[in-house]
Amino acid sequence: MEFNATFLISAISFIIFTLIMNKIFYSPLERVINEREKFINDTKLETQNTNIKADTIIKERDEKLNKSYSDAKELVAKKLDAANKNSKEKTENAKQKSTEEIASAKLNLQNEAKNSNEALKLKVKDLAEVISSKVLGMDVKIADTDQEIIDRILN
User: Fold this and answer.
1) CA dihedral of residues 105, 107, 113, 114 (deg, nearest 10)
2) Strand, coil or helix: what is 1?
């Protein structure tokens, strides 16, 4: 193979062409590629950080929801217990009040029955005296011992 001036000029031309292409085409292209690669890497890193923050926020939200749920459940249980206790107290109070009212009514009825019996005894005594007076034709008074006999008859 022969090395002459055309080979040397071709080699120099190629080197000059490569340097010019490097300066004009490859350098800007390499710079754009590096910028895009840096942008992609930065965006990827930012996305990872955002995902980590989102996971943290989701965990905090779930913890708060669970805590709120358990607090609400506890509050409902407390209110239900208080309502049951209040209901039992009111029921007991009502039972006690009704028992007292029944006892009072029984006592009143017994007193009225006793008073009615006394009044009835007096009327029976008066009626017996009137009947005896009319039958016998004279004034008859019934003594207290006779009243005991009338009481036995009525009871």
Assistant:
1) -160
2) coil
d(CA 19, CA 22): 5
Question: Which of 26, 23, 20, 24 minimizes the C-alpha distance to 12?
Answer: 20
Residue found by looking up tokens 């009514």 in the block: 105
Give CA 100 to chain center in angstroms: 36
Q: Which two tokens stand for residue 41?
A: 């890497």
Domain boundaries, the chain: 47-154
pLDDT of 91 above 70: yes
Model confidence pTM above 0.90: no
Three-state SS for 137?
Answer: coil
Res 104 pLDDT > 60: yes
Q: What average pLDDT does this structure show over 54-62?
A: 97
What is d(CA 72, CA 10) in angstroms, rounded to the nearest whole number?
Answer: 87
